[in-house]
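FAQ

Q: What does a record look like?
A: Structure on top, sequence underneath. For example:
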């Protein structure tokens, strides 16, 4: 009856709780082992599909990080002009970029009182990471500002001859192996003298191919501005 009430096809997830009368339960189930109900094959397939980890690019991570979000009605702000609460939007932008760019990937997620490790493969470039699309457009060469800014907080204008170098090259990766209960850290580093990548695992150091640097264990990425 619960499935029929939810319409055609049923809801994506159903949890039924049965409260037994003690005498009825003892009459139906002779032991605790008999209480276990085997899940249908469709349930197992859904669990397998949900457990499969997808992949994404580092560029997609930055796009989500700087994506404009609609504020909830409870977070409405009072407009200084019309004096009426307005449901606004919020957006994070990168204002300036450092010579050394350290990117910390979110590998742990908290659900209720439990924390889980995320093993999604984040594909990141070893050379030529272009951060220009993710930097706030603060002005044009002629000095005209893009967008509308509050008069008491004008955006910063860079000197006319200041280069806008947004290309970065990777030089190290910190990896985390294991789970919340126990883990181990390793690193991939690019030797500045020979340009080759090496794997560092405690006292063990060995060469690795560039194709082996991007893994599901990548935790912290270290980039350097190309022309710094």
């Amino acid at each position: 009856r619960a499935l029929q009430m939810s319409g055609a096809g049923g809801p994506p997830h159903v949890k039924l709780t049965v409260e037994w009368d003690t005498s009825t339960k003892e009459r139906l189930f002779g032991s605790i082992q008999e209480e276990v109900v085997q899940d249908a094959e469709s349930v197992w397939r859904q669990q397998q599909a949900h457990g499969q980890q997808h992949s994404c690019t580092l560029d997609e991570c930055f796009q989500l990080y700087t994506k404009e979000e609609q504020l909830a009605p409870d977070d409405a702000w009072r407009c200084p002009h019309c004096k009426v609460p307005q449901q606004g939007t919020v957006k994070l932008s990168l204002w300036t970029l450092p010579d050394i760019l350290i990117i910390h990937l979110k590998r742990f997620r908290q659900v209720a009182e439990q924390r889980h490790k995320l093993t999604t493969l984040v594909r990141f470039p070893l050379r030529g990471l272009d951060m220009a699309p993710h930097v706030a457009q603060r002005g044009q060469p002629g000095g005209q500002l893009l967008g509308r800014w509050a008069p008491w907080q004008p955006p910063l204008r860079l000197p006319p001859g200041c280069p806008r170098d947004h290309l970065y090259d990777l030089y190290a990766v910190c990896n985390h192996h294991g789970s919340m209960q126990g883990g181990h850290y390793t690193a991939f580093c690019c030797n500045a003298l020979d340009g080759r990548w090496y794997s560092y695992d405690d006292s063990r150091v060995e060469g690795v191919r560039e194709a082996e640097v991007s893994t599901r264990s990548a935790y912290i990425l270290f980039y350097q501005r190309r022309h710094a």
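Q: Is there anything notable about this one?
A: Residues 39-133+165-225 form a domain with the Cathepsin B; Chain A fold (CATH 3.90.70.10).
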